Each structure stands twice: as structure tokens, then as C-alpha cells.
């Protein structure tokens, strides 16, 4: 396609016939099926089909996914696949993968899959093959990472850098921070990493309180390089550096202690970072889909280029599966459609992601942006309002901690909360011998929770245990609470890449069925604009026109408390 050829527009893909989702016959058939499904219990589904666990398990790459504890039958899955077909999910997927501008409101391609494509791939954006650029930047990142890891990247005073501080927020923070945590055993433990995101100055303070300016390197990560939190923190970091090294250190110190990751070379240069120390990415990479771009620079320093590439290969493996597997054996399709089923027909408001791995402590927070910023929308791709539930609230923390906090509600509360349980068969490679036995206990809890949530404990079973009659209702577990179990051999870079790509594509499938644009984020703008207007009122007491009475009173009270 030449640069002048009009780009294919895909606004009609998701609503090919213009029929809203809830008026489609496939939706009506699911609704009737839901009525018939009624209170069908997982106990019955398993009793009726001894092969259910085998039939509803799929292995892809290093992931073994058991979705048998979901409230579905063959008929449900067939009807959901028909819905995916009618709403053009595969057509939109293909449009995304070939670089069409499916992000309509920003007129952009959505090509995070190009970030992990092999060198031999050809992926065109506006007629231009982006794969060579992706690999050129990866090579620059690798050269830089190797220098820091070899301790040959020297600071202004000639000392090697030993602390890397990533400054970024949202997609420019959550991905690298999550993956760094997840892959800790695979990192260079002689280097220290900090991830600063919050405009609350305490975040930066804690990252620097025990740091030596001569050994500290800042990676300022911002797609736009205009995000107020990141720019404010980067300026404060620059002040900290220069006050530590002496103002006269000036631009030489900035060049040796600051690198940038951005799409915006002009703003990077204005900040004072040498654009030779800038690692670029492109506007066809959404912030929340960017950690396998140069946004992962800090992570690459931690892991080393080889491990980083293993992670990219893991992503690519899942991309290939998503692109080629038939819908009924396609993991992102399956997991996405299960969410459509629960949101549309069980009134599920939220989805819990519960990794049984302490290293995965930031995984759900990462998924919150991925899922909620992508699918927290209430208009269709053409601007008409939706009349159905879209993205759920995504939440969760690592097991077993959550079991002693909110699992009570999951087991016996009135809310319907589908959950993903994620675990790894082998413990971390460098776990001391003495701690290895704890891994079986951890995983026993994962399996037990899936079992308890699905099958519960009937009042008859409870009574048969000799529980006094008045306590029986309190100690009964209704069960029938759906979970999907994702089990992998070990949490390594490849498996993490596969997992993240799985969730990326799951979110895509849901957005396509719901006919929303999963790739813009206008909903975060208003708060940013208002904060800019309110700040002078806090600092200088200036009048903010049209401030509502509640906010105006809060501003006055804040100023009183600050003695202003
Ligand atoms: O919060 C909105 C948002 O634009 C996210 O989508 C993005 O990941 C984050 O801000 C950070 O943006 P940037 O990388 O441009 O600083």
C-alpha cells in the first residue's frame, strides 16, 4: 500500500450490519440460553460430563488453561463463538495486525504486536515497514543495557551507575515495574531499580533518599513527554542531581545521568536530555501496550537483552496463537467471551485476577490499566451509546494474602465475581532450599480455592459433619462461583510475555464484541484539565471561575489547614 493510498477504515467492522449488540439475534439466543441455564450448578455439569476438565483445558506455549470451572456448556461456547463471528472479532483482529487505523478517534494504527515480531516479519504502517525500526531500537537498547550491566556506563564523576530510577506513569510505569518485580530472580541483583510515578513528592523522595547522585541514572519514560506527573518528577530529579553534583556539572551531568524514552524528540530536547540518549517508540503503540517497546528500557537493563528477547518471544508466541487458532481453541477468544457472557448475562460487575506468586504482586495493577483504560467506555465505535455492560472492574492481589482479606465475600457474599487463578508449578529458580517446600503449600491453596469456589459445601454436607443446626446456614458454601486456572511451569520471561499478550488480546476480543474503541483514553483528560485549573487556587488562592460549591469549600478548607 503506498503512503497516498487511503487507509482502510474499520469503523463498521464491529457493527457490520449496524445492528446494536443487544439487538443481534446471536445476543438474543444467548439471552434465551441464559434463561434456560438458570441456576445450573458446576457440580451437575461435572457430574454429567466426567471428561469436562479435559475438554475445557487448553495448552498454549507454556500456559495450561483450565476453564472447566466456568458456567458454560458446549452450547454456551458455541453461541458465544457465533456472537464473536457476527460482531466481526476476527476481522477486526486481522485489521489490527495488518496496521489499519482501528483506533478511529486518534486515527492511529494499533501495532503493539509489531514490537515483538521477528526480524523477518513485514508489518506496514502507512505503507512503511515498521519491523526494521523496532529492531534498530532494540539493538540500541541492548547496547545501552549492556554498558550499564557491565558497569561501564559512567556518571559525571567517573563512577559506574548502580541505581536506575525509572520516572513515568500509567503505561510508562506499570509495565516495567510489574515485569521487574515478576522477574526479580532473573535480574542483576547488583543493580538497584526504583520506579517513580506519583506526583506525590514522597515517591521520588523515597527513591532517592539513600542514593548517591554520582551512581544514579534516570530513565524518563513518557510517550508524550508532556505528562505533568512525569515532567514534574523529572525536573525535581534534575534539581536533585545538580544539587548533589554541583550546578557547574550542568549539561554533562544531565547527559550522563538522564536518558529518555519517548515519541516526542522536541520535548526531550527542551528538557535538556541529549536526543542521542533518547530511545524512541511510535504513536502506533498505546501507552498501556508499550512495555515491550523502549518503555521497557529499565527492565532490559535489569534482565539483560537476552532475557528481554525471551520475553518478546513469549509475547510473539501468544500473538501467533491469537492470529491463527480457530475461535473455539483460541485462548484470548475464550477468555474474552467468558467475560462477555458474565458481564452481559450474569450482571458481573468485576473480575478478580489472583496470582499465586508474590513476584506477581503488581500484575493485577498492571492489568487494571490494560483492561479498564481500554474497555471502560460507554459509546460505540461510531459514537452511539452502548446499551450493555462493557469492561469490568479488575482487581485482586496475590494469594494467599487475599484469602485472609476478601475471599470471604468471594465464597459467601451476594456478589458474582468471576476470577482467574494464576500459578506456577516450579518455585523461583534461586529460592533457598529451605523455602522450597512452601511452594507446594502455596499451590495447594490455589487449587483448594478453585475447588471451594466451584463446588462449595452443601448444607447437608455441613450438617453431616455434626455442625449444630443453627450454624449450618453460616457454614454452607453455595459454590458455583466461576474461576479459570492458568498454570505454567515457571515464572520466566517467556511465560510472562505469553501471559501479558493473552490478557492484551482478551481485552481486544471484548472491546470488539462490545463495539467500543479499546485504544483511546479520553476519559482521563477531564481530571487533568481541572487539576491544572485548581492548582493555582491551592497555591495562590486565585479564584477559579465556575468552581462548584463543594470543591470551592474544600479548596478553602485545604488552604486553612495549610495556614494560607
Ligand atoms: O493516563 C493517561 C495516559 O495517557 C496513559 O494512557 C498513559 O499510559 C499515561 O497517561 C502516561 O502517558 P505518557 O507515557 O505520555 O507520559
From TrEMBL:
The keyword Zinc does not apply. GO terms for cellular component: cytosol. GO terms for biological process: gluconeogenesis; glucose 6-phosphate metabolic process; glycolytic process. GO terms for molecular function: carbohydrate derivative binding; glucose-6-phosphate isomerase activity; monosaccharide binding. It holds the Pfam family PGI. Signal peptide: none annotated. Pathway: Carbohydrate biosynthesis; gluconeogenesis; Carbohydrate degradation; glycolysis; D-glyceraldehyde 3-phosphate and glycerone phosphate from D-glucose: step 2/4. It is an enzyme of class 5 (isomerase). PROSITE patterns: P_GLUCOSE_ISOMERASE_2 (PS00174), P_GLUCOSE_ISOMERASE_3 (PS51463). It catalyses: alpha-D-glucose 6-phosphate = beta-D-fructose 6-phosphate. The active site is at 373 (proton donor), 404, 528. Its EC number is 5.3.1.9. Catalyzes the reversible isomerization of glucose-6-phosphate to fructose-6-phosphate. Belongs to the GPI family. HAMAP family: G6P_isomerase (MF_00473). This is Glucose-6-phosphate isomerase. It comes from Nocardiopsis metallicus. The lineage of its organism: Bacteria, Bacillati, Actinomycetota, Actinomycetes, Streptosporangiales.
